[in-house]
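Data deposition worksheet. Section B asks for the primary sequence of the deposited chain exactly as it was used as input, without tags or linkers unless they were present during the calculation. Section C holds the resulting structure in token form. Section D is free text for depositor observations; keep each observation to a single sentence. Incomplete worksheets are returned to the depositor.
Section A, Depositor: J.P.
Section B:
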Amino acid sequence: MAIFRQLSLGAKAALAAGTVFVSMVVSRSYLAESLEFRAWRCLFRLQLALFANSLMLLGSIYIWRSTVSNLRHSPAAESACFQLWKMIVAAFLALAHSSFFTMIFLVAEEPYLFSLVAYTCLGAYVIMLCFLCVLSGMEQAYQLLAWRAGRAVGSLDKTRKLALRPALVVVVTTVLSVVGLLNAAQPPAVTTVEVPMHRLHPSMNTLKIVLLSDIHLGPTVGRTKMDMFVRMVNTLEPDVTVIVGDLCDSEASVLRTAVAPLGQLRSRLGTYFVTGNHEYYTSDVSNWFALLMSLNVQPLHNENVRISATGAHSEDDDWICLAGVDDIEANILHYTGHGMDLEKALEGCSPDHPTILLAHQPLAAKRALQARPDINLILSGHTHAGQIFPLNVAAYLLNPFFAGLYQVAESTFVYNATQRTFQIDYHHNRFLKDGQPFRYISGSIHYFRVPRFYWKDRLLKMKMAGLNAIQTYVAWNFHELQPGQYNFSGDHDVEHFIQLAHELGLLVILRPGPYICAEWDMGGLPAWLLEKKSIVLRSSDPDYLAAVDKWLGVLLPKMRPLLYKNGGPIITVQVENEYGSYYSCDYDYLRFLQKRFHDHLGEDVLLFTTDGLNERFLQCGALQGLYATVDFNAGTNLTAAFMLQRSLEPRGPLINSEFYTGWLDHWGQHHSTVNPKAVAFTLHDMLALGANVNMYMFIGGTNFAYWNGANTPYQPQPTSYDYDAPLSEAGDLTEKYFALRDIIQKFAKIPEGPIPPSTPKFAYGKVALKKLKTVEDALNILCPSGPIKSVYPLTFIDVKQYFGFVLYRTTLPEDCSNPTPLSSPSNGVHDRAYVSVNGVAQGVLERESVLTLNITGKAGATLDLLVENMGRVNYGPSINDFKGLVSNLTLDSEILTDWEIFPLDMEDAVRSDLGTWDGRDSGYHTKARAHSPPTYALPTFYVGNFTIPSGISDLPQDTFIQFPGWTKGQVWINGFNLGRYWPVRGPQMTLFVPLHILVTSTPNTVVVLELERAPCQDSGPELCTVEFVDKPVFRTVQADRHAN
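Section C:
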């Protein structure tokens, strides 16, 4: 006893650990048969906890000395703060030690708060102990090197040195612990790996196995998380699910309700389980086997099962052998009836059929391959995918297989659960996906331009072209039309769109802006930002940053679970868009975005920028920490283009983020086309250079409703965003699609199977329309709240009308018997005003082109201007594009005042019962109406119906609507706003009508708002008809720009 008292505290702790270990051996070897099983099991688990704690005691003594004892001689040792510090360290160590006892005494369906705190302290304890050891080792090495060099070792003041070490240790431990907690809060990662299998029957070629490992149900994981795991697995629709050990950390009876969700696993060919080391620490393996079998989970206890495409236990010849071995910990613990028995596990497996072995520990996998090198695939776990810092260092050194897929022989693989990673390999100028070289071949698709009904069809066609990724923008204004009102459902469900791409095996390059350009209204920025008239968009203007900050706080948390590292498909995220071509060149703004993206998505997310081939663009658009990429079109000098990228990124992958497959259109111009051979030729050369390519666009889609953008000088884009892309606006396969597919298959494997065909189109023929009401006559329906009165005209933003139309009304202050100029001297009509006096159409004022119009009328007559927002500028310095009458109008040089302003709600009016429109003329205009001049008529609604036979199984089908004889306007079908038509300008002559808006159960309703002149007039014999055809029509119309 005297000798024991003379031992140091550390020696006593080591002796205690040895004593407990010996008692464990004794109880396992000699008491197992003499004690009642439950008593023996409790004794063993208690011994295990005591053994762990006695080992931890050695570390606790070291931590106490480093953070408390060494400070006893400092001047602050007697202070209250030091006494409080001692209590904190003592409580911290006590909680860490208590963690092992919670596995025995504090386990339930959901984790106790005490258990979570105790295990958090245990993690911090391990970090702190490792850091102290590293710090001490560095000090000793420094002193040794200094001694060998014959130099005196300088030191800090003793008091400062004593205080510096614990302070540094606490800071590092706290930071790493917080990082660990944030990582633990993330959903489990889903990694997809394709493994070639020797001798696999063709019927099993697409066998999908979901591997679960290291769940550790017990003190820190409960039923809620188990529910989440099961939902994630079921979403993957596996053929087989395997649980490769360490499922539990406590007894089956205690965790019965927590593990119950496993019974909801839907695996077509079964769910299987093998033990890990932690199952044997529970000493309750037999009860766990029984519980799992009741949940339709089959334990493989050194046994195997034959699995074929038709089911388990098959006698057909197309089977694989799925075998499982007990964990090698059972051999070490001498667990009765258990232990790794490879020969028994593989009994009945044939060398003529593939063999898959489940073995929890990588060391067991190594032993299995040494004994049976004919095994085709081993699935294991145990290393937690290298995520538990700093224990992952030991896991890497002690295990022959750490994380990921290992090819051991030509037809033999070992897969250990791995953490998904996507990063840049600067040394080899490439990407690494899960540690393997990777190059993306991508195509752009905008979910907001393609109806949700067709998302899967378009994505599948892109995949079958050989693409392994897609790129999409996120349009802020598409989701937040009104401030603080968010829409992420239906066609706005970007999360579902990204998940759908994931399910189809496509990666995603996300471009969330906040500015996107994209030939989309205001470049994706919401118009309500302009309510602050002095706001400077795309800059560090405080009002702009506040709105962006709020939006990113809504969007990016939705994207975080979809990142590749978190099991989703998003591999890279763009910050802003072509910012170098914007005049502000505000690096503070880019730094703000960079920080917010990291705050919401994590520090390790791969962020990039995109700019055009201009040195200034790249200088203003790039920022350290954001990988700089370029964009250019077919026929570009590739050497010069990528050399420009190399001027900012000397190392890393070559990337063309926007390789233009076509180009955009404007009203009144030629339909843009690009030769397929030119696009294919440049694509070939880029791929031959090893470059990563995104083709913009792969499918353009449609600017439904009012969503098109515009360029300057003011040129609005049409409803069609066909872009001459490989897939047409309607998703049809084109010559360009097959030309690009032929190039891609020279560099990448093309998926097997048929390409989804172009969707069938149907020509429903002509539909007669009847005149319903003029806009003036329908004001009480279109603006039921009445007008807003103002001395001077207000903009759309002022009256909170962000899209569509606003009617401005005043009276003529003087007699205009002779034609009198009505003018917009400051180009104040944005964008087109349809002018009438006392119900007589006078003509059109148009932005930048028709600034003066001669009108006639008597003093006091009603002057109406129906102003159309034709789409906000989406590119350049003029994106703060106000709409309506943005400056005063003059009549014969006199400013017009006293306006009534009617914001028109076209959408609700069109969706309402059109039959109620009859007999409800507006009370705002009652004067007699003269005939309009032959060139123009009042803006008027027309309506018609057509029926699609319900007995034909293939109907409805996609179609196109054209407007013979019509001039310009808007069209709705069954309340869905298809967009603008303008056949007298072109080039778009038809509008795409997707089948999902058509019905066969009732007549389909067509509503047309003709703004200038319909083919039928009140006194004319012509019929007003639109026609549904089966092909799109683009045609350049040679007409006077100012005439229509």
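Section D:
The mean pLDDT is 88.
The longest helix spans residues 113-148.
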